[in-house]
Structure prediction request, 952 residues.
Amino acid sequence: MTTHRSTRGWAPLLVLLTLALLPASALAAGENYGRVSGYVYDPTGSALAEVPLTISGPALQQPISRTSGEDGRYEFDLLPPGEGYQIEVTVEGFTPLKLKNIAVRLGQTTPVDVKLDVFTETQAQATYEITERTNPIINPDSAQTGAVVTADKAAQTPIFTQPQGIAQLVAGVGPGTAPSSRGGISRWGKFYVDGMDTTDVSDGSITSTMNFYAVENFEIITGGLDAQYNALGVVQNIVTKTGSNRFTYDAALVLQPSWAGAKTQFSSNQPASTGGLLQNSSGPQPITTFYSPVLALGGPIVKDRLWFYLSGQMNFSLRETPLTINGVQENRPRDTRTNLARLKLTWQPTSRDRLSLAVNVDRNTISNNYSNANTSPEAESRIARGGYFLIANYDRNINDSTLFQLQTGFTYKDVYQGPQNDDLNAVAHVDSSTSFVRDSSTALSSSTLPGNYSTENRYRFQFDPTLLFKRGAHQMKAGIQVGYLAGDQSLGTTGNLRYLDRNGYCDPSSPSYPAGCDTRVSFYGANGVLGPNNTDASVAQLGAFVQDRWTVNRQLTVVAGLRADVGRLYGNNSTFITNLVGIGPRVSATYDVTNDRKTLLKAHYGRSNEMGDVFVAQRANPDLLQYSATFNTTTNTFNDCTPETPAGTPGCTVAGGANGRFFDKTHTPPSVDEVSLGLHREVSEGAVVGVDLTYRRYNNMWVDEEVNQIWDPSGTRVIGYVDPAKVNSTVYRIHNPSDAWRDYKGGDLWAQGKLGRWDLLASYTLAFNNGTVGSYFDGYGSNPRLKYLFNGPTPDDIRHTLKGAVGYSTPFGLDFNLRARYLTGTPLWQYQQLNSTATGAPGSTNFYRSPRGTGYAVTRGTANFNDPTTVSELRNPSQLVIDAQVRYDVGRLVQLGSNKMELMLLITNVLNNTDATAYYDQYSTGTNNNYGLVRSRSNGPVAGQLTLRFRN
Prediction:
């Protein structure tokens, strides 16, 4: 709910931020309700004050009463999203009135004006009923951009049933379940469930997913944030269903047998070093299957007082990946199992108090997770992860003009990735010439971590009290948001050893030993003990905000707010890292151009500040120690290499441990400044078209900047070191320089709503994303001489996006739905992988010679990088994907009444588009040059999925 907040009280809030023992940035309590507001008039158009109004609906446990103000304005807040609300007005001397079929959307204000007629003796005494067609999409009280997707719209849209996937339907949001939005990177996304922040404390994903059918409204906010939010990316606010006085059930069975999908006719995950890419259709083709039972129940425990909603879901997914290993094709099964459970209780002991409690459980396992051709089946990895959250919401109407809200809760997520067989004692073996990972071990846990198994635990505690109050034409809001984010990680390698083999297999227990031996790597924790490395990090956060929504008159609404945020970062063993402090002013206005609630002009300026997370706080923690011993062919033994070995011993190299990264003591936090302008117009009852123009500037992003190496003027060779004691060593300063930035310039043309039997959510976006930083710690600053080459289109620069979710409903229970996405290709950036002999620097490095998003035209095997006339823009191919769904209410045939028995057929990728989605942009002058080859084909082949759903 967004009632609007006072512009007083700045000083006490700022003092509170300064003195707080646990300073932190509020990750902002999210909206949990919608509103209905309007004006009451007499037949002459004059405002009527002190008119009593009562609203009721199936989502309310008890009716709510309000009276109109001096200007005739009334407002019902704290309304759970839903359909079928009605307003009753009974005033002596006027005809009794009942307005019906009012829809309430999450975070939106539904405008409903009330015009009373003078009562005459010829009129009936009964309440005069009116079927009112309100338009909840046109929102006169806020300049926020985005959309609200109802449960019905989500269910009829051809999309896999994941709540976090709905955001990509909305203008300005990129593809995927952790999307970027308006130039913001994906880790800046925020996920709220029933008003509480449940964002993963490390990577910006959702902590725990849930049953798709348990959601009532999906609110996607892409810009124009009110002061209660502090986010640099897209905000996804999910409000789940509650029970009611009527017992409800919702059961579904999703079926996708192997015969329902086309078989993949192209190879995937194929590095060229595996010996060729087969396109073999003569052998068994890979299969895909998916099965999912879903059940949800809701109803009263105590009528009008206590309701429950319980849901559960199980997913069984099998997807085979075609691989070619040493010229032999295999189909490796990737098996995913997911269990979801959720319980929500809603209790209203009095007409002024409401309490809800919700718990969510999510367990997920993935077998053969790596499924890559550089890994043997015996070296496959398994993921076991789960998320939990507990949410409590308390609302207290102190009086008709004052409301207290408390949103609080706890989230927990654990992630394990390790060997398929869970054997942590097996020694790892890798063929050094082909990088092929083989038996009795597992592949790397990620491309950025040196170990092959990891365990993580991530926590969040949130406490967000808010006070809302009204004074005349002002709806004010003030709140404090306290959060504590923490995480620990254990990273190791099975057997604490890894052998790099060459021309054989290095096995000390084998009679053939020492054949095949090249290098032995031993792994130690940062404490120097053989075994995994354990680290932890945390962030304490506090934010405060005030906001005032001033209804100047029926046409103009002004919203002004300010928030202050503080973050305190801690590294390993609670070592203090730094403080982050940010101020975020917000101001917006909406103007009803035609004075009929049908044409709104909206403008907004705002700033949000990022207060750090566990991922950032972990950055300077020590890495897993790696002692590499070279095999001595003279003695047929490995050279001695342990923590006790003297530095500089021949045949011994050391990596990891203290990683050479340190934080600045003071920081300017990453922030975004946004300016937007929009024009929204109702084109029919329930349908709106709009144009939104947005400029965003992202400032002071996190960077690792190398400060020890001295490069020559060309940036191609290291000629010295700042610290003579750290020759051949890198030292990285972690900070937020002003030259680490991104910006976004974009325009959205969109339409949403119902036109007769058509249901539309469609948009076209023209956007330009540029900057120097693609993501946190992406290499910008690793070679300060070449910083200028990082300035260009960012990796998520999609110039043109056309998307639509269009449905048509027939009068006999059959509806057709189509979803289409066209996206132009993202930029590539040609680079070479060079080793220390080429650069004079330790280790290997990605070396760029032209600006970001470009490359040089080359002849294979002969580079002509020094010819500037050959530079050209490089892009991945554009993508076009279309999905379709047909749904029929079979219950009509057997006369089930209000019950629905729906049969749905979902066809994904109906064009069977298996075109390439990305190319290799690494150039090599050698024979192993992959430049320009296909890197990925993310679109699966055409497939069908059948769902049977029975509900009341």
User: Anything to note?
Assistant: The helical segments are 10-19, 151-156, 614-617, 836-839. Residues 1-28, 272-278 have pLDDT under 50 and may be disordered.
